[in-house]
Amino acid sequence: MFAPYELYIGWRYTRARRGNAFISFISLISMLGVAVGVMALIVVLSVMNGFENELRERILGVTSHATVERYGEPLADWQGVREVALAQPQVLGAAPYIEGEAMLRRGGALTGALLRGVDPALESTVSQVAEQMVAGRLQALASGEYGIVLGRALADVLGVGMGDPVDVLIPQANVTPAGIIPRLRRFTVVGLFEVGMYEYDRGQAFIHLGDAARLYRLDGAVGGLRLRFDDIFAAPARAREVAAALASRFGAGLYVSDWTLRHANFFRAIRTEKTVMFVILALIIAVAAFNIVSTLVMVVTDKRADIAILRTLGAPPASIMTIFVIQGSLIGLIGTALGTAAGVALALNVETLVPAIERLAGYQFLPSDVYYISELPSDLQGRDVVRIAGLALVLAFVSTLYPAWRAARTEPAEALRHE
Question: Where would I find the H helices in 77-144?
């Protein structure tokens, strides 16, 4: 009742009336276009955030936040390096490792794998492999017993299970009277793990650190140390602090690399894809904004007589412009509100809806042997919702300026000439 008349008239023009049903229909379509664009953008960005977080957790669950290595040679004094690293308050765990490529053979099945020697007692402080065991235990690895833990997909390729023997060949040779032959050792499967990322489930195997040292003939040295920090997002800064502490104790020669360097291209590609998807889907909102322009142009044409009467009664051009800015902004505001509500609801329930759709369709959208992740995760972030809603409101407001400016320039006498 006490609202400015511009707001009242703008809201009245937005509502459906019998005299301008077609214009009201176009307004509804514009509103739905904004809603669909906002909803799609929120859902897609939430799913991509979920993918990024899931990949990061799974990768770091098998690898580590950072590694300490010595340039061009094994790390012989790893115990002292570990003590210095653990002395830093930001380091939660440190474990030695030996890593190399190997061929695994079982009968006629032969496949490559990344072989990693670990200390089972320390490995749980830097990775989550012990928590992802589906058969056996990581602690079953014992020095001198030559046990091996395989990824579940890798075990399926070899056709082996618990207690089965597996021949491990490494790209180093033994010189014997019979000639040069590859170095080979038979291991026994003592565990199977599944982290849910096919790359690791298919290509990773663990053995005890002592067995790896004998196999690669490192004589007590290791390939490096794996570190776990208190904050994975602060890994670059934490790595620099650890590197400085190690340099002050051991001098030059040690190199500390964090996960953002070792997987930089991978996560950079994800961020680039998110940016591109944001731009592409934002075009949906832009198209809906163009619909608002066409809607307001038709409204201005249809309401020329009303505009002339208002001008005759003393309404200034700024008031006329405000009326149509309000009308277009209301279309954008309602569409944005509907799209935000629908997008948030879908993003929060994607992990429930997609499996239900897969069961109904009888088809898996993300096969585990093709994609890194076989489930569709979602991570709704408030800053994305605010950014998307703000973009939609800005586009809706900008789209009202030209039609409103044209309405404000309407000459009363010219508009009423044929009335």
Answer: 78-86, 120-123
What SS3 state is found at 402?
helix
Q: Confirm whether 261 is domain-assigned.
A: no
In the predicted model, residues of the chain with pLDDT beneath 70 are 1-3, 5-24, 173-182, 302-303, 358, 362-375, 410-419
CA distance 355 to 365: 9
Return the closest-CA partner of residue 113 out of 168, 66, 59.
168
Contact 323, 408 (CB under 8 A): no
Is 63 inside a domain boundary? no
**Is the CB of residue 287 less than 8 Å from the CB of residue 396?**
no
Based on the fold, state whether residues 95 and 157 are members of the same structural domain: yes
Using the 8-state DSSP alphabet, how is residue 139 labeled?
Answer: G
- Amino acid, res. 277: M
- Quote the domain boundaries for residue 328: 5-58+266-415
Residues 314/318/322/323 CA torsion (nearest 10 deg): 30
Contact 192, 134 (CB under 8 A): yes
User: How far apart are alpha carbons 352 and 330 in whole angstroms?
Assistant: 33
CB neighbours of 222 closer than 8 A, spacing ≥ 6? 74, 75, 78, 96, 97, 98, 117, 209, 213
What is the phi/psi pair of residue 263, to 5°? -120, 30
31-57 per-position pLDDT tens digit:
888 888 889 888 888 888 887 777 777
- What pLDDT is stored for residue 373 in this prediction? 58
Q: State the Cα angle at 253 between 247 and 256, rounded to 5°.
A: 70
- Could you give the CA distance from residue 38 to residue 32 in angstroms, rounded to a whole number? 10
Asked if the structure places residue 257 within a domain, the reply is no
